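Structure tokens please, single chain.
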Amino acid sequence: MGTAASQTAADAPLPSATVVDAGLTENGRWTVAGANAAWAGGGYAADPDAVLDVVLRSGRPAVQLPATDRPFLRDLPEVVR
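Here you go.
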């Protein structure tokens, strides 16, 4: 994507298992159309092995999460029956 996209990613970090839809605009600039959880992204023309890697990364145990993903963790909701 280039330097501008890399800088934007550094300024607005996402969990490592996020699917980002990006593309070029008519004037040749990169833009992000959306970002979703890995399980909600469609594989489209992506490499199926890479898609599976991201989905599996999104469902790994919390103790295996990298430090960069920890700020995105939420407390589990309380279930009342």
